[in-house]
Structure formats: structure tokens, C-alpha cells
Amino acid sequence: MRALAPILFLLLPAAAQAEDPPAPPPLPPVVRLFNHMPYGEADPLTLVPVPSLPGCTLVREAAEDLERLLGSARAEGIDLGAVSCFRSIEHQRRVFCAGAANCDLVARLRARFIGPPGHSEHATGYAIDFVQRGIDCRAAEQCFALTPAGKWLMRRAPDFGFELSFPAGNKQGVAWEPWHWRWVGRATDLGPRAQAARMRFAAAQARFPALPAVARPQTKAAAGTGQVPAAAARLPEGD
């Protein structure tokens, strides 16, 4: 019996290994969506055409501030146009999935450059893609940052309630889009629509700040203290 003990001892690891459960199958590859936030679609009743930009519709208050912005730019000799304003989620789906037999297979590549359907700021009715007419820079190209219009927007857009959603080197990890601006209302605008826009983009602003950004109005309690209002300090996070 003693002679069999070493043999049994040597067989134990093999027996234990045979009883282990089979290895789980490999996990499917993760589709990286670059932290895009989910956005609902604007109520069609809140959208109005922008008089100076045929085919462009935005939420009324955003459209009114955009008209002021366009007028100020024209006064300085800058002819701004738009290649995209409000886009429905279905329209975004066609753009995002264009030419792909399986949209999921291309999501990881395209999400760095365009919001997946349901995750685009354009569906909110607050976002616009600018272009400068009459110059040698195609729409939605990073050369826009070097144009007179691009430089003017960096200086003046916040005065009209617009901020740059995806600045260069943004923490979100998406491509730099100097042409894409979202409306959150002017710093002095305390109206319900501006507040709704700020809440819509609160999580994005907290995690991936716009630059330049519109200064958020302070509450009476925080006024003069330099503190962020308590409501803004408890912003939810989520994609």
C-alpha cells in the first residue's frame, strides 16, 4: 500500500485538472463608441427654419441666436453657411451606416468621426456644422479652423450661446471638429429653453468640456463666490 502512495500523489494533479470546467469562450470584441452620449430627438414643434440658411432648422431660441451670430459675422465680412443643422435619428442612421451591410461591424471605426444614431447632438435641434462660403476648404474638414470663419467663431461664438463640442485633443477621444458647435444659450440667458439645452448637455460638459465654452449662469447663492451651483455640481454621468 505504501508503494502505491507516490503513484497516487503523482496522478492527483491530472485528476484535478480533468475535473475543472471547460474554459469559457472568448468574449466578443468590444465596439468602442468613444463615450458618445445618448440624445433624444427634438420635438418637431420646437423646430423652426433659420431664415439665412435655407434647409437648416433648429430649436427656435437657437435659431434666433444663430441669426444674430450670422449677422455679426457678415458685418465683419465673413460669409458663414451650414452643411448640417437638425438631423433626425433615422437620418443619422443612414449617414452612420451608409454602405455597410452590417452597421455594427463599422461602428468602432466610424464612431470616432460621427455620432452613432441616437447619440448625435444634431438630433437635439441645438447643433450646427458651419462652413465658410467662397474659400478653398471643403465642408467638415479640419482646415476650417484656419479660415477667417473658424477663427472668428473661436472668438465670438460663445457671445451668441454656441460652444465647440469637440475641441482638439478632447478627452472624449473623438476627432477634432472645429466646424461643429452646439447652442446652450448666452451666459445671460436664463430662459427655459436655454436651461433645457444646458441640462441636455450637462453630462457631456462635465466629462468632456467644450472649448471655447459658454459660461454657465450662476445661482444667486453662488453669485460672486466663483463656485459652481450645486445643481451643476451633481451632474449625472452616462453615455
Give a structural overview.
It contains eight helices and six strands. The model is unreliable at 6-18 and 219-239 (pLDDT under 50). The chain is α+β, with helices and mostly antiparallel strands and 239 residues long.
State which percent range the strand residues make up. 5-15%
Q: Please describe the biggest sheet, giving its number of strands, its sense, and whether it closes into a barrel.
A: 4 strands, antiparallel
List how many beta strands DSSP finds.
Answer: 6
Continuous helix count? 8
Query: What structural class is derived from the secondary structure elements?
Result: alpha+beta
Shape: globular
**Rg (C-alpha, Å):** 26 Å
Distance separating the two termini = 66 Å
Task: Report strand order across the widest sheet.
Answer: 3-4-6-5
Please estimate the helix content.
25-40%
Mean pLDDT score, rounded?
A: 84
Contiguous uncertain segments of 5+ residues: 6-18, 219-239
Order of helices and strands: HEEHEHHEHEEHHH
For the structure shown, list the relevant keywords.
6 strands; 239 residues; two-stranded antiparallel ribbon; four-stranded antiparallel sheet; disordered C terminus
